[in-house]
Write a structure and sequence with these properties.
By secondary structure, the chain is of the alpha+beta class. The chain has 4 domains: about 160 residues, 2-Layer Sandwich (Beta Polymerase, domain 2), CATH 3.30.460.10; about 90 residues, Orthogonal Bundle (Hydrophobic Seed Protein), CATH 1.10.110.30; about 150 residues, no CATH class; about 50 residues, no CATH class. About 55% of the residues lie in helices and about 10% in strands. A 7-stranded mixed beta sheet has the order 3-4-5-2-1-8-9. Helix 8 runs antiparallel to helix 11 and helix 13 packs across helix 19. The longest helix is centred in the C-terminal third of the chain and has 25 residues. The radius of gyration is 29 Å and the shape is elongated. It starts with 7 loop residues before the first helix and ends with a helix. Its EC number is 2.7.7.19. GO terms for molecular function: poly(A) RNA polymerase activity. This is Poly(A) polymerase. Its cofactor is Mg(2+).
């Protein structure tokens, strides 16, 4: 049965964290000597109980912001007060970032998630305003007393997310907490309690008052969690996805008994899982770009679905349409242009391999595949492989072997021709000298001709490239 008391092993985990981070006791003594309370709160406490690593530290204190600055001024290596309005002072001690916040008992306007900040007097009231019970535990400093007023330990034992107050009140105060529920499902492997799911479903439209940037940040954290599919399912089932990523639930296409096709929604989630399993191919993981591209690679299908005679369904050009939809949605969520370009490129190219057939591509076609993928080639390898979700074992094996062959051909050509740095055989200065022209659009036109020639014929000598360029220019004139 769930317990509300620390087991010996969990007490040992907390003690180990305190022992490994001696600055915590130092900080606690500073506040005690000044006549104030200080406690570690939120995620760091939860992670200590779970035995998860962490480097960011959140604290709650009876001291007001001015007093926090006075107490820690000579102790901290750096200090910033951008959160002063909300009672928060930021510090850096060694390699650790710390945020110390005065006890609060906020009041919220229903039309905004920005609270009217009221400073509180006790840690009890402060903990009651936190998002989930597993994040409403505290460790007093320097005594190391463990505080669990809302059953956070029991919820950890049951791997459940509940709110300290009613979920309706919690989510009304801050609708972003609904997104956090899905994020913690992904990160921690917990499940949301039935009353939490019910409130999320009833209050999904409240998400509209949250800024796109905050929603995006929670989505990113969800996607790079250990089980993003579980978190995404919760977003879709509660209607939250329809508010912030409507293209995802749109993949649940209405089925027709006469026109059968793969379940696009379930297929997309499977592709995401299979791409995650291949992330070891990349330099670092988790990789947000490949996870976004895997999840969104088929979002063009609902707009391109067509029924044809014989009971089949087509999705012609869903790759191109999908890339445009990706750009539109990611811009709405305030993603950077660089990230948008990377994800959209992968979505646009995710079908390109299927033109490879049984290996009939010429070397020229392989070069163009590499050129078009550019710096996304390794991610395209992963997405293309993950996109195979057929239950036909023979077909799956054939696709795998065919892609193995394509990768081998790319490797051979790359070694022989430096595909990663593919350039025309003549540079801009040489083009202008040979043709007797100055800078301008004509140089770009000649450059593109030489690049296409390089794709078709591979590396040429300077003499051969010069001859080809002169012939092209004469024909153009």
């Amino acid at each position: 049965m769930p317990t509300s008391e620390l087991t010996p092993d969990r007490r040992a985990r907390i003690d180990a964290v305190l022992a490994d981070n001696s600055f915590l006791a130092e900080l606690g003594l500073l506040f005690t000597d000044a006549g104030h309370e200080l406690a570690i709160v939120g995620g760091p406490v939860r992670d200590a109980v779970l035995g998860r690593p962490g480097n960011d530290w959140d604290f709650a204190t009876s001291a007001k912001p001015d007093e926090i600055e006075r107490i820690t001024g000579s102790w901290a290596d750096a200090m910033w007060d951008v959160g002063r309005e909300f009672g928060t002072i930021g510090l850096r001690k060694g390699s650790h970032d710390l945020e110390i916040t005065t006890y609060r008992s906020d009041a919220y306007d229903a039309s905004s998630r920005k609270p009217e900040v009221n400073f509180g007097d006790t840690i009890d009231g402060d903990l009651s305003r936190r998002d989930f019970a597993v994040n409403a535990m505290a460790i007093r400093l320097p005594s190391a007393e463990f505080v669990d007023l809302f059953g956070g330990l029991a919820d950890i034992e049951a791997r459940t997310l509940r709110t300290p107050v009613t979920p309706e009140q919690s989510f009304s105060d801050d609708p972003l907490r609904m997104m956090r529920a899905a994020r913690f499902v992904s990160q921690l492997g917990f499940t949301a309690a039935p009353e939490v799911v019910s409130a999320m479903t009833d209050m999904a439209e409240r998400l509209e008052i949250v800024s796109a940037e905050r929603v995006r940040d929670e989505l990113n954290k969800l996607l790079i969690g250990d089980d993003p599919v579980a978190g995404l399912r919760l977003l879709v089932e509660t209607g939250l996805a329809a508010q912030m990523l409507p293209e995802l639930p749109a993949l649940i296409l209405e089925r027709d008994e006469h026109h059968r096709h793969k379940d696009v929604y379930e297929h997309s989630l499977t592709v995401l899982e299979q791409a995650i399993a291949l992330e070891a191919r990349l330099e670092s993981a988790p990789d947000l770009v490949i996870r976004l591209a895997s999840l969104l690679h088929d979002i063009g299908k609902p707009k391109t679905r067509r029924f044809v005679e014989g009971g089949t369904v087509t999705f012609h050009h869903h790759d191109v349409v999908g890339a445009k939809l990706v750009r539109k949605r990611m811009r709405a969520l305030r993603y950077s242009n660089d990230l948008i370009d990377q994800v959209a490129k992968l979505v646009e190219l995710h079908l390109r391999f299927h033109g490879y057939g049984s290996g009939e591509w010429t070397d020229s076609a392989v070069r163009r595949y590499v050129r078009d993928a550019g710096d996304q080639l390794q991610r395209l390898h992963i997405l293309t492989r993950a996109d195979c979700t057929t239950r036909n074992a023979k077909k799956a094996l054939r696709l795998q072997r065919t892609y193995d062959e394509l990768e081998q051909r790319i490797a051979v050509l790359a070694e022989a021709e430096e595909l990663d740095a593919m350039r025309p055989d003549l540079d801009g200065a040489q083009i202008m000298t040979i043709l007797g022209i100055g800078p301008g659009p004509e140089v770009g036109e000649a450059y593109r001709f030489l690049l296409d020639l390089r794709m078709d014929r591979g590396p040429l000598s300077e003499a051969d490239a010069t001859e080809a360029l002169k012939s092209f220019w004469a024909a153009r004139s």
